[in-house]
Amino acid sequence: MANPSLLILAGDGIGPEVMAEVKKIISWYGDKRGLAFDVSEDLVGGAAYDVHGVPLADATMAKAQEVDAVLLGAVGGPKYDVLDFSVKPERGLLRLRKEMDLYANLRPAQCFDALADFSSLKKDVVAGLDIMIVRELTSGVYFGTPRGITTQPDGSRVGINTQVYTTEEIRRVARSAFELARRRNNKVCSMEKANVMESGILWREEVQWVHDNEYPDVELSHMYADNGAMQLVRRPKQFDVIVTDNLFGDVLSDCAAMLTGSLGMLPSASLGAPMANGRPKAMYEPVHGSAPDIAGQGKANPIACILSFAMALRYSFDQGDEATRLEKAIETVLADGVRTADLMGPEGGQPVSTTEMGDKILAALNASL
Ligand code: NAD
Ligand code: IPM
Ligand code: MN
């Protein structure tokens, strides 16, 4: 049987730096675990714009549709701020998500014991934290129309974006959340603003409908998203699975990142419907961006990107045990006190580089055999 195929789109800024460490891990699985992948690479974001004049070439889009999974680094950067909106790096990423129909973005926030002291919150608030944010990824205000910037007759301008959700868009992401909850602690909290938005009312009603008709065994609660933001930092361990829309999910997951210690720790899986081979359409991407402030300095934490590959092992390749092996290797390295600069507390210490962190994780993988 052919090896499973991976398309690597490293992107911009720290994207290629963290992806270089993931490539080492992929090779390790081929060499040491008999898990070989057919890996190809291509351009996305500013890197694609520099070569093709667009942030995602049609040929790259076509490749992404064919492979078993896409691994994405990060896109964007100040160099591209001047570009027309339609060709900005972020448009490349949004096109991938939309055309692959990756509607469920799984953003787990787990606090490794070794980092519980490091979070900006008190240790007992975050120690042992394990929550899963399921962010709707292909609709809502990111894609709704009408949108744009128009000039009024009096010369003033109006910026417009529209939040649109349909029954089916809400129901399918709700099902993803309930399915995950059944394999975890059986609790879903749905977040919207049904108190001010009609789309929020629909969201609440449809999530409730899916619950009542298909998942009555799962505990469901509803919360306004602003309260949700507050509760996430007040008592995050009250949550198991959170399901929310595209924009709220973007903001709440960055917030959840700090519960784990650093944005450099948070992975994600963007999943769509099953393909003919039974695997879900999938792209794996760290939650963080291209971090222009540290790009090119070897300071980036590669763990979010490596954990995203662990999610690929689990959700695309049915290799849950190998995913756990990789997560454990990361845990070991952190427990040994190995830290990239973003994980340094006020007490200081000597941070390791991106490459050194990757090498330490490889050493821990070797030790796990
Ligand atoms: P960012 O996530 O790039 O950076 C925010 C802060 O977190 C910075 O201080 C950065 O140094 C730090 N950080 C992020 N990842 C880190 C890592 N792995 N290790 C250590 N520190 C890390 O967000 P931003 O600065 O708001 O955005 C920069 C660019 O990235 C923008 O163009 C934005 O659109 C883009 N972006 C892309 C993605 C993506 O590709 N998925 C996600 C978010 C932002
Ligand atoms: C993310 C990013 C993206 C988003 C941007 C870069 C398009 O912030 O993946 O969280 O807003 O979805
Ligand atoms: Mn974001």
TrEMBL record:
A molecular function (GO) term: NAD binding
Cofactor binding comment, as recorded: Binds 1 Mg(2+) or Mn(2+) ion per subunit.
Binding, substrate: 97, 107, 135, 226
Gene3D superfamilies: Isopropylmalate Dehydrogenase
Binding positions for Mg(2+) per the UniProt entry: 226, 250, 254
Keywords: Amino-acid biosynthesis, Branched-chain amino acid biosynthesis, Cytoplasm, Leucine biosynthesis, Magnesium, Manganese, Metal-binding, NAD, Oxidoreductase
InterPro entries associated with the record: IsoCit/isopropylmalate_DH_CS, IsoPropMal-DH-like_dom, Isopropylmalate_DH
Highest taxon, organism lineage: Bacteria
GO-annotated biological processes: L-leucine biosynthetic process
A Pfam family of this chain: Iso_dh
Cofactor(s) in the UniProt record: Mg(2+); Mn(2+)
Isopropylmalate dehydrogenase-like domain span: 5-361
Residues that hold NAD(+) according to the record: 77-90, 289-301
Enzyme Commission code(s) on record: 1.1.1.85
Catalytic activity, as annotated: (2R,3S)-3-isopropylmalate + NAD(+) = 4-methyl-2-oxopentanoate + CO2 + NADH
Pathway: Amino-acid biosynthesis; L-leucine biosynthesis; L-leucine from 3-methyl-2-oxobutanoate: step 3/4
Primary localization: cytoplasm
SMART domains associated with the record: Iso_dh
GO cellular component: cytosol
Site keyed Important for catalysis: positions: 142, 193
Subcellular location per the Swiss-Prot or TrEMBL entry: Cytoplasm
Main function: Catalyzes the oxidation of 3-carboxy-2-hydroxy-4-methylpentanoate (3-isopropylmalate) to 3-carboxy-4-methyl-2-oxopentanoate. The product decarboxylates to 4-methyl-2 oxopentanoate.
Family: Belongs to the isocitrate and isopropylmalate dehydrogenases family. LeuB type 1 subfamily.
Assembly and binders: Homodimer.
Protein name, UniProt field: 3-isopropylmalate dehydrogenase
Origin species: Rhodobacter capsulatus (strain ATCC BAA-309 / NBRC 16581 / SB1003)
Gene: leuB
